[in-house]
Write a structure and sequence with these properties.
Blueprint (H helix, E strand, L loop, with lengths): L9 E11 L5 E10 L7 E8 L5 E8 L10 H7 L3 H4 L3 E2 L7 E9 L8 E8 L4 E9 L7
Parallel strand pairs: 4-5
Antiparallel strand pairs: 1-2, 2-6, 3-4, 3-7, 7-8
Length: 144
Amino acid sequence: MKNLSITLCLFYAIFCTAVISTKATAREVTLTTELQSYSGNGAYLAIYVTNAADQYQETLWVAGQKSKYYKHLTGWARASGLQASEYDGLTGAGVTSGKTLTITLDLADAYIDSGYQLKIDTSVEDKRDNRNDIVVPLTTAGLR
């Protein structure tokens, strides 16, 4: 994780649980992201996957309900083209200072141990935007 000089920092983003689901081609993964305390409005997060060539593959989750702020999630916004079809049904409430966001999602087995990465872009209203705030290789070891 980048060492940030702004008030918004993510303490960590780890996979807390990775359980093979009943689907043969996906794993159910629980992702927990905790925000450091800061003053200001709610945060926005885009969680997405890129391949080994750093090309956008898929949006997994977008936290924050005001879509007008999604453009501030710069890496994801540019890669996804901000097309509603890329995040439709994949959005939820934002997270705020000192709070934890936990989501569970299905992650395609094809992404594991194949050079793919999970990326998280962050932004806070009226604060700095952080492209690639967290980058995690999608490996079997990383899912533990």
